[in-house]
Amino acid sequence: MAQYKTDAIILSVHNWGEADKMVTLFSRNLGIIKAAAYGCRRPRSPLAGGMQMFSYLDVQLGEGQRLDIVRQCEMKLSFKALREDLDAMAYATFVAELVLGLCPERHPEPQIFDKLLQAYAAFSKHNPRIVALAVAYQFLDYTGYQLNFDTCVVCSTPIKGDAFFSLEQRGVLCSDCKSPGSDAFSDKLRMFIYQLRELDWLKPPVFSVSGGDLVLAETLLLLYLQNLLEKPLKSLAFIHQLSMLPGAKKM
């Protein structure tokens, strides 16, 4: 059985059998890898500490017929804070699930990998709701599924000021091209989404946003993702449960 090494982030973990786990890894140079970690739930297993959600690892795997097998791992970053804060964990899980939905197996996505590491670090330092929203819009840009906010999707006229938006046409429309199903789309909301798409979590700027624009940006994103992925994201149910708690962040 051929073996290989890579650095990878754990995107999902499921208990399997009495002492094993099935994990989905995201490697910078290999993309998404599904693997089995045999015996990792035993207390003395050398894999026990590493096979946790969000862990960033140096990992050695063996090729298998259906699943690769985790042989060894060394922790690079544990992102333990994401497992200790419910809000951060919920939004980080949403981002991980989005990677799984947008990226095919064994297809490297280095920009998304690097942005995911930055996002995981940012979740414990900044509002996790804003972090998740910004990263999701950026992931769409990296994968080619982006929405068009700069020019009219019909006539290509540069958009200045208020406009209209069509989810079906995946972008903004000028007043001359608006369709019966399009919605009013303010320049303020467009500029906020543009800020999210350009946001650098290594040097995050200071900016403010109204609650109304935040909700609209989220609603637009989630409607588009549901249409794009053709299935609901399971993590949204967890976020919704947390949103019922007093003072919770919503999405």
From TrEMBL:
Entry-linked InterPro entries = ARFGAP/RecO, DNA_rep/recomb_RecO_N, NA-bd_OB-fold, RecO, RecO_C
- Top-level division of the source organism's lineage: Bacteria
DNA repair as a keyword? yes
Q: Which residues form the DNA replication/recombination mediator RecO N-terminal domain?
A: 1-77
User: Can the keyword DNA repair be found in this entry's annotation?
Assistant: yes
The cellular component terms of Gene Ontology attached to this UniProt record, alphabetical and capped at eight, are:
bacterial nucleoid
Q: Which UniProt keywords apply?
A: DNA damage, DNA recombination, DNA repair
GO biological process terms, alphabetically, are: DNA recombination; double-strand break repair
Pfam families to which the protein is assigned, alphabetical: RecO_C, RecO_N
Function summary: Involved in DNA repair and RecF pathway recombination.
UniProt family annotation: Belongs to the RecO family.
This protein is called: DNA repair protein RecO
**The species this protein was found in:** Propionispira arboris
